[in-house]
Amino acid sequence: MSLAHVRTGWSRPRRGLVGAVLGDPATPALLADQVVHLDGGRYQFWMSRHGYRGDGAFGQMCLVVPSRDLVVVVTGAMTEAQQFLDALRDCLWPGLDRPDSPADDARLAARLRGLTLPIMAGSSGPDRPLTARITGGDAVPEGTPIVVEPVEGGWTLRLGLLFAIEVGHGQWREGAPLGRPLVGCGGWQGGRFVAELCVITTPHRVRLVVEAGAATATWNIVPLTGPRLDLHLRAPLMTRPDVS
């Protein structure tokens, strides 16, 4: 997910983000500096001649250009920072020299309001509970019992004594079973139940697959705090998994 704040115009996104920033002489100096960190940095903030950038784990990023009244924040998992910088160069930067336009502002606001996570494909499946135990993956301890209970518009997932969370069918449902917000969406795909659990204040999500008495729960990217989903959901977020 990303958020762009800019008081100047917004240009139409173009397809085909091309080239490495450093290889293009037309690239704005800011973006080139951001890649090579020419001016150094401290505490995960990197300076350039025209602004600065905050770098977090797993591609989380905050780019600030005071002279253009521009802030761009990315909180989703991103493994290729260069693609993000290329997108800024090709899609956002050309519009910064355009005059202010209420129509452009309205267009950007409408686009941001319409942003959503992809819905998990699948049917509503059988109207009966499904039970299993975790046998694989890295997000939930092996042997943890799991129950998938049908409810109106989705399911309730119970992971042993760890926590329970509602999962929507055709929609995301939000809860905070241990403090941090978590959204879930799922569906039946053939003979197995598949759900995506997204920790929306972080770049992390878990894919849960349940079938024939066995289940797996796997991170897209294992958090810095360790693989235990229940520890990651506690608020405030623990920085040391060995400290309760």
Would you give an account of this structure?
It comes from Paractinoplanes brasiliensis. InterPro entries: Beta-lactam/transpept-like. It is a single chain. This protein is of the alpha+beta class and 244 residues long. It has 2 domains: 2-113, no CATH class; 130-232, Lipocalin (Beta Barrel). The protein is built from 4 helices and 15 strands. It has helices at 29-36, 81-92, 102-113, 229-232; strands at 2-6, 41-42, 45-47, 52-55, 61-65, 70-74, 130-137, 145-151, 154-159, 163-168, 173-175, 182-189, 192-198, 205-211, 214-219. The protein has a 9-stranded mixed beta sheet, with no helix packed on it. The protein has a 6-stranded antiparallel beta sheet with strand order 1-6-5-4-3-2. A hairpin with a 2-residue loop joins strand 14 and strand 15 (214-219). The longest helix is centred in the middle third of the chain and has 12 residues, at 81-92. The protein is elongated. The two termini are 31 Å apart. The model is unreliable at 1-39 and 239-244 (pLDDT under 50).
